[in-house]
Amino acid sequence: MSKKVSDKIQSRMRRKGHIRKNVAGTPERPRLVVYRSLNHIYAQLVDDLNNKTLTTASDLSPEVKSQIKKDSTKTDKSSMVGELIAHKALEKKIKRVVFDRGGFKYHGRIKTLADAARNAGLEF
Asked: Which of 23, 58, 70, 108 makes the best surface tag, with the fewest CB within 10 Å?
């Protein structure tokens, strides 16, 4: 791993720590955690008081994989994941969440996922 890449990862982890200090999920208002890898995007709802993951969604889940077309971009996939996590949350009667971007910039795929979740009915 080159120095530039490891510096980026260390910076992201530092930002993540600063965010996690102030963001905590409760059973009534869980934390919507987003992780973005090079090829995939993952989202989960976490209740920090009980240390439980309430629901998850990713572009690898069957519900999203069935909607992916051959020419779908990573941004399109993140939009589908945002809608899926919102529908799963609403099924569990969760309407309000706290957004945890995990140290990533609120831009691109992270922003698309958040906007799709908002449009599908989540409040944050």
From this structure: 70
How far apart (Å, rounded) are the C-alpha atoms in residues 20 and 60?
A: 26
- Ranges of residues in the chain with a pLDDT under 50 are none
- Alpha-carbon gap, residue 101 to 11, rounded angstroms: 14
> In whole angstroms, what is the distance from residue 32 CA to residue 43 CA?
7
| Cβ 73 vs Cβ 62: under 8 Å | no
Determine the Cα–Cα distance for residues 124 and 117; give it in Å rounded to an integer.
9
Q: Could you give all domains of the chain from N- to C-terminal order, each with its CATH number?
A: 3-119 (3.30.420.100)
pTM for the full predicted model:
0.89
Q: What is the rounded CA–CA span in Å between residue 94 and residue 45?
A: 10
DSSP 46-111: EETTTTEEEEEEETTSHHHHTT--TT--HHHHHHHHHHHHHHHHHHTT--B-EEE-TT--SSTHHH
The whole-chain average pLDDT of the chain stands at 94
